[in-house]
Specification:
Radius of gyration: 17 Å
CATH class: Mainly Alpha
Distance between the termini: 53 Å
CATH superfamily: Farnesyl Diphosphate Synthase
Order of helices and strands: HHHHEEHHH
Number of helices: 7
Number of domains: 1
Helix content: over 70%
């Protein structure tokens, strides 16, 4: 008799890998802007450093519980990832961290002012990505996100 747990685990890994590939593909096509270069290059840089991408993957997995069309959740999932990376820019400044994911942090590679401004653009763009959803509860979800996000930032930044 086949081991159901092993089959389920293997199936979960395949699904997770599919979602991660979908996230990376869409993340690489996001257009944040080009000019001024000093503002937008740090955004491309931080997002190119990789990471686990668990937050957007969990977003897609949660969507899959309720709807088999997970592509409908790709933009909000990307918004969550962009928001997370925005917090990392600010966190690195607060911690005076020189390295993020084995590479120079944005404030070290450029400077703190650029990191702050690039992070601010990322915050705005995260909301732009959320707004690409046509979910009927979008207003409620954004309200919840706006309530939870500062709590997340305080905890992750140890304020």
């Amino acid at each position: 008799m086949p081991d159901i747990n092993k089959i389920a685990h293997h199936h979960s890994i395949i699904i997770l890998e599919r979602y991660l590939k979908l996230i990376e593909t869409h993340l690489s096509t996001l257009d944040f802007g080009n000019e001024p270069v000093e503002l937008y290059e740090p955004i491309r840089y931080i997002l190119s450093l990789g990471g686990k991408r668990l937050r957007p993957a969990l977003t897609l997995m949660t969507c899959a519980i309720f709807d088999e069309k997970v592509e409908k959740a790709i933009f909000p999932a990307l918004g969550i990832e962009v928001f997370h990376n925005f917090t990392l820019l600010h966190d690195d400044i607060m911690d005076n961290a020189p390295i993020r994911r084995g590479k120079q942090t944005v404030h070290e590679k450029w400077n703190a002012n650029i990191a702050i401004l690039s992070g601010d653009v990322m915050l705005v763009r995260a909301y732009d990505l959320f707004l690409k959803s046509d979910h009927p509860q979008l207003k409620h979800l954004l309200s919840r996100f706006s309530t939870c996000a500062p709590k997340y930032a305080r905890v992750s930044n140890s304020i």
